[in-house]
Amino acid sequence: MRSVAICSLFALLLAAPAAAQVNAADMRSGCQTFTDVSGLVSTGIFFVPSGSRFVLTDVTVSRVAFSGPFDVSAAPAIRVTINNGGGTSVPRWISTDRIAATDDPLQIHWTTGIVFEPSAVVEAAVSVMSGPAPTVTICWSGYLTPATTTSVIPRPPSSEQLGLEATPNPSRESTDLSFTLARKQRVTIGVFAVDGRRVRTLQRGVLEAGQHHVTWDGRDDAGRRVADGVYFAGLETAHGQASKRIARIR
Fold first, then answer.
1. Pairing assessment for the beta strands 185-193 and 229-237 based on DSSP bridges
2. Does a structural domain hold residue 224?
3. Are 28 and 131 part of one and the same domain?
4. Looking at 146, 170, 204, which one is the last position of a domain?
5. Residue where a domain terminates, one of 82, 117, 146
6. pTM value > 0.90
7. What is the pLDDT of residues 157-212, one digit of tens each?
8. Phi, psi (rounded to 5 degrees) for 78
9. Where is pLDDT greater, at 202 or 7?
10. What is the CA radius of gyration of the chain?
11. Cα–Cα distances in angstroms (integers) from residue 116 to residues 85, 110, 225, in the given order
12. Are 126 and 195 members of one domain?
């Protein structure tokens, strides 16, 4: 899971210190289950020790307790935020998606990681639209690196490298969305209204490397034809993200 411009904020995504080989002793991971989620709930999931930076590399989100059975309730949209916690939380990553209890967990991997400075609090926050939700579980992993490390690894590819295009645009009928992946990875692509509301989920899953095409027929998830106006296609991958303006006309 989600358009960067509309529904997803990758703010202050800093390049991580290089770690050609991470010592197992430096790895950190855990899970946090939120129950009866109504409104916004948050908690610190890791406290970075002094003298070290923490590089968060992976997060999974599911509607299942990590030690319990599937919950088969309805699936209202879930918003997950990773923050610099403390007195005033600072969002580092935000995404909204609709995850059913029977779906595979939403898996996010950052090639460069999200870096948290010494003594920082890594905070996870969850809110559920039209909740409550009985169970939301966030599992995470990353590694510690000395605060004196200065070398960096490359940033994820830019939106230009994903090559997201929409044709024809404007469109009266269907719109072909094309994009290119440098490697096999999980992809989510959808269509959003200008107010950030998700109109249609077109693809969510793992795709092979290469060029891909997805068609939007101008309808929402309920099969209704959308009104004329401006929409946004949003592409999010584990290694980059992009958005494209789409105009619908009669």
1. antiparallel
2. yes
3. yes
4. 146
5. 146
6. no
7. 444 467 788 888 888 888 999 988 888 888 888 888 765 677 888 888 888 888 88
8. -115, 135
9. 202
10. 19
11. 10, 14, 44
12. no
Considering the domain boundaries, does residue 14 fall inside one?
no
In terms of domains, do 139 and 43 share one? yes
Which residue type is seen at 232?
F
Over residues 63-73, the mean pLDDT reads: 52
Calculate the alpha carbon distances from 163 to 57, 179, 188, 241 in Å. Answer: 25, 5, 15, 10
Q: Do residues 233 and 208 both lie within one domain?
A: yes
Residue position matching structure tokens 């990758």: 10
Per-residue tokens: 9: 């904020």
CATH code assigned at 120:
2.60.120.20
* 164 and 140 belong to one structural domain: no
Taken as a whole, the chain contains a residue count of: 250
Q: Which residue has the tokens 């070290």?
A: 52
Q: What is the 3-state secondary structure (H, E, C) of the chain?
A: CCCCCCCCECCCCCCCECCCCCCHHHEEEEEEEEEEEEEEEEEEEEECCCCEEEEEEEEEEECCCCCCCCCCCCCCCEEEEEEECCCCCEEEEEEEECCCCCCCCEEEEEEEEEEECCCCEEEEEEEEEEEEEEEEEEEEEEEEEECCCCCECCCCCCHHHHCCEEECCCECCCEEEEEEECCCEEEEEEEEECCCCEEEEEEEEEECCEEEEEEECCECCCCCECCCEEEEEEEEECCEEEEEEEEECC
| Tokens 């290089």, residue located | 18
Report the CATH number at residue 197.
2.60.40.4070
Task: Evaluate whether 92 touches 13 at the Cβ level (below 8 Å).
Answer: yes
Q: Which domain holds residue 68?
A: 24-146
Shared domain check, 127 and 174: no
Expressed in angstroms, the distance from the first to the final Cα of the chain is 30
